[in-house]
Amino acid sequence: MTTTEERRGAGGGARRLPATGALADRLGRPMRDLRISITDRCNFRCVYCMPKAVFGRDYAFLDRDELLSFEEITRIARVAAAHGVEKLRLTGGEPLLRRGVEELIAMLAELRTPDGRPLEIALTTNGAALAVKAASLAQAGLTRVTVSLDSLDDERFQAMNDVRFPVERVLAGIDAAHEARLGPIKLNMVVKRGLNDDEIVPMARHFKGTPYTLRFIEYMDVGTSNGWSLDEVVPSAEIVERIGAEMPLEPLGEAAPGETASRWRYVDGGGEIGLISSVTNAFCGTCNRARVSTEGKLFTCLFATEGHDLRALLRDGASDDELAVAMGGIWGARADRYSEVRATLTPELRAARQKIEMSYIGG
Ligand code: SAM
Ligand code: SF4
Ligand code: SF4
Question: Which residue among 89, 339, 358 has the greatest number of ligand 3 atoms within 8 angstroms of its CB, and so is best to mutate?
């Protein structure tokens, strides 16, 4: 177990780097949100993300020494905060599988923005371990969780996670997170036509009037293992239409700059839903998200084919200032807008692009 003093010396949050000013990429977008994948492993085998045929018994996951250590993650996050990042999101793989995740959260909770504010620390999880871990995560300093939930039908849910994990344990985890004040909690449902689109309205009905905000995500062509095709995407406009036909909806304004979801509220005051239209209404123009893979590569787009090796820099003894210059240079050169150009690519060109897997880089 690392002591607080050791953490401070080895990359903890107390020491602050000088502010680097307004960092902007080639399209004028700032870096505000850093998503960090802390494991490439998962206890689920969701059919659209880690299909068993690819991620089976023989799949070579990363060795422990290939993963970024907690100190390395904290150093990268601290430099990112100096560059303007205000929000961290831990993801994976399944982030709750990383041993000692609470210790990492406690280290990240010590970080501050250049003007002295703590960073928001969110985590995206499949919810399997939440019932057990919600209280300790909150105590460590986690701000909130987003839980993935693609179905309420137990048979369907078990088939989709492909490890026979029952849905009621995830629902219990969501309630435990709410009790631990890890909210406002967002629930993400990836919608794939023919797989779970018949649950759009039942899911909306179930969570209407609860403290949870359900968000529908268009199925994306991330990675190369899921054999994506455009016919499987249910456009957000169709989702709003289907729900609205039964429970009238009206549009709400944007929550925050760079917000990925468009928001709608029930006319009768039953709360709101979100739509993440990565395919039919790309939001690259305001995309302020950077991603760090489990082995320390910085990616400037979810659909990037290559990352920048920050781990090599760290392990070669780079100082924080050198790391800051490298990260600033990478962000400054960024011109990614894959979702905006996707429609112009032929299926062959899309297939030829060696994109990284969602389980490696997180959502
Ligand atoms: N294991 C955690 C979980 O499931 O929440 C975190 C990592 S998971 C890769 C992050 C999010 O990516 C999940 O909400 C998942 O549903 C979503 N996702 C995975 N593959 C996707 C795809 N092809 N299209 C859209 N979302 C996807
Ligand atoms: Fe695991 Fe999350 Fe991918 Fe499902 S979506 S296989 S829970 S990483
Ligand atoms: Fe951001 Fe890339 Fe997604 Fe566009 S495609 S919103 S640039 S991550």
Answer: 339
Answer yes or no: is the C-beta of 125 below 6 A from any ligand 2 atom: no
Q: For 4-361, CATH number?
A: 3.20.20.70
Q: Which of 42, 57, 62, 59 is nearest to 161 (CA)?
A: 42
Question: Confidence class of residue 210 from pLDDT cuts 50, 70 and 90?
Answer: very high
| Residue ID of nearest Cα to ligand 1 atom 14 | 148
Query: Domain residues of the chain, as ranges?
Result: 4-361
Answer for the pair 20, 328: CB distance below 8 angstroms, yes or no.
yes
- Interacting residues of 39 by C-beta distance below 8 A, sequence separation 6+: 67, 92, 93, 94, 95, 97, 98, 294
Ligand 2 site-directed mutation target among 41, 46, 96, most atoms within 8 Å of CB? 46
Under 8 Å between Cβ of 187 and 174: yes
Q: Is the CB of 37 under 6 A from ligand 2?
A: no
Q: How does 109-130 read in b/e, with b if 16+ C-beta sit within 10 Å?
A: bbbeeeeeebbebbbbbbbbbb
For residue 138, the number of C-alpha atoms closer than 13 Å in the C-beta half-sphere is 17
* Residue pLDDT, tens place only, 292-324: 999 999 999 988 889 999 999 999 999 999 999
Ligand 3 atom closest to residue 339's alpha carbon, by position in its atom list: 5
Write down the pLDDT at residue 253: 78
